[in-house]
Amino acid sequence: MNTNDRKQSLKAIAVMLHSFPPQNGIDPEMQLTSFLECVDEYSFEAVHEACLRYRKGEVVGHDARFAPSTAQFTQQVKERQSYIDFRKIKAAEKLPQPAQGRRPARHFLTRWENGEFQKEQKGQGA
User: Are residues 33 and 76 in the same domain?
Assistant: First the structure.
């Protein structure tokens, strides 16, 4: 995570933590540092999505009355990162374009399924 992403992540985490009732005996600065250290290897997008999901109460199995632990939060960020990576891979996948003047393979498959090649072979053998 670069410096700008780290600052944005810190802000997103702070907003999330302030969305829950304060916990007695916890130093807010230490808590923020701990959360950020646990998710430093992930993207800002993953951190932001996880924060938003906790604030909206969308994390399954989490008691929305309390802030998540660093372990719970890290797990959610890790899950979000997996989704982000998957979306990027899917967006990058494109069907290759056929060579100039050639029909794509799916045309061949359609002709095969329609039995056109069998008809051609019967005509040649007769």
Answer: yes
Give the distance from CA 7 to its chain's centroid.
21
Provide mean pLDDT across the span 87-92: 82
Quick one: CA dihedral 96, 101, 102, 107, positive or negative?
A: positive
**87 and 110 share a domain?**
no
Domain of 107? 102-126
- Separation CA 30–CA 36 (nearest Å): 10
pLDDT tens-digit map of 37-66:
999 999 999 999 999 999 999 999 999 899
Whose structure tokens read 């056109």?
116
Let me know if residue 97 belongs to a domain.
no
